[in-house]
Amino acid sequence: MRGHKWRTAVTLWAAATLVTALGTTSAAPAAATSDSHPAGPAARASVLPVLLGCLSDPEVRPSEFILACGDGNSRLAALHWSSWDANDAVATGYNAVNDCKPFCAAGKFHSYPVIVVLEHPHTWKQNPRVLQFTQMNLVFPGDRPEGYDRVVNIPLWN
C-alpha cells in the first residue's frame, strides 16, 4: 500500500510539473475551502490517524497546517486530500514561506505548489486510543523555497 501512495505522489508531481511547464500554475494559493474536520468522538472511534497541529489539535483532512509553530513563517494552505487512510494520506496545495528578507518581520510570503504525504501512524501519547501521523513528506514539483530540497522529510511532533 505504501508503494501505491508514493506512486500517486510521483504521478501528481509529474502532472504538476507538466502544468508548471505549460505555465498555467498560479503562484498564489487558491482560496481554501474549509474541509478540515476536527477529530471528535467519531474520528477517535475510527481507525483513521490524525494530524496534530501546533497546539496538539487533532485534525483529519485539514485545509491548512502551520509548519513553523514558533513564528508562522511556513504553512501549508489550500490542501486538497486525494486520500486519507489508516496508513498514509496524500494532498496537494501550497507551501507559503516567508523569505525573511531583510528580516522576517519585513519579509514577504511566497507560495509554492506542494504535494504532502503523511506516513507512519503511531499511538498518540496524549490519547492512546488515537493514532497520529508521525512523518510528513513535502514534494515540490516546480519552484521551491530557497534552501529546500525537492523532497523534504519532516518528523512530526507527538
Q: Total number of β-strand segments?
A: 9
Overall 3D form: globular
Give the mean pLDDT: 81
The whole-angstrom Rg is: 16 Å
Element pattern in H and E: HEHEEEEEEEE
Q: Strand count, sense and closure of the main sheet?
A: 6 strands, antiparallel
Continuous helix count: 2
Separation of termini?
A: 24 Å
Number of domains: 1
Helix residue percentage: 10-25%
As laid out across the biggest beta sheet, the strand order is 4-5-6-7-8-9
Strand content: 35-45%
- What structural category arises from helix and sheet content? alpha+beta
Organism: Streptomyces adustus
Keywords: Signal
Protein name: Secreted protein
Signal peptide: 1-30
Write the layout of secondary structure elements.
Blueprint lengths: L1 H21 L14 E2 L2 H5 L5 E2 L5 E3 L4 E2 L7 E11 L4 E10 L10 E16 L2 E13 L11 E5 L3
Antiparallel strand pairs: 1-3, 2-3, 4-5, 5-6, 6-7, 7-8, 8-9
